[in-house]
Write a structure and sequence with these properties.
alpha/beta, 8-stranded parallel beta barrel
Length: about 230
Amino acid sequence: MTAPLDPRDRLIVALDTDIGSAEAAVATLGESVTFYKIGYQLGFAGGLALAERLAGEGKQVFLDFKLHDIGNTVEKGVASLARLGAAFVTVHAYPQTMRAAVAGRGESGLRILAVTALTSYDDADAAEAGYAFPVSELVRMRAQQARAFGVDGIVCSAAEAGLVREMAGPTVSIVTPGIRSAGDEVGDQKRVVTPADAILAGADYLVVGRPILGAEDPRAAAEAIVAQIANAL
């Protein structure tokens, strides 16, 4: 049986910033944070080297690159990323892309996360993109496909975490962005929840950026969210 996750390891801090600010944030947060997300902004500005360094120092790294391309390109790209020592990489939850990503990670420890629908999307955005059904149905369909293709985890709003757990089963990890504590600014997210609500909904990992990095005391903000996770568990 897999050991339960420590509450501290369930918090993923999003380093959506420049390389200097990211390195300063990591130094400030110290041992209060064990897991970091690196996306486009940082990844294209020195973030890959930082990811490799953090992994070498014992931190876990989530490469949030949302890969989506022809199968051969995705497979080879994932194989290259697997050499960095990262824990997670995201791909868009299209069948061909998911199959290629699973093939590309091979026997490495890299885990593939499928992005069902962005947390900045609501039903109106789905309709504008050409989908004839609401976001919840899009999430349902893609979660079922992800499980069938051997994907390790699903990225979704906590609002859909229960649905994803039902569709994808107990062994698939659920990662939820769009986390905001009570009173936080929502920003560009449309489907947000508190840390406790996300855990109670079935999320395994919570991605938090601005509420921590923008806090007067980032370390205290991170520790407060870890405490909320622990209390919810």
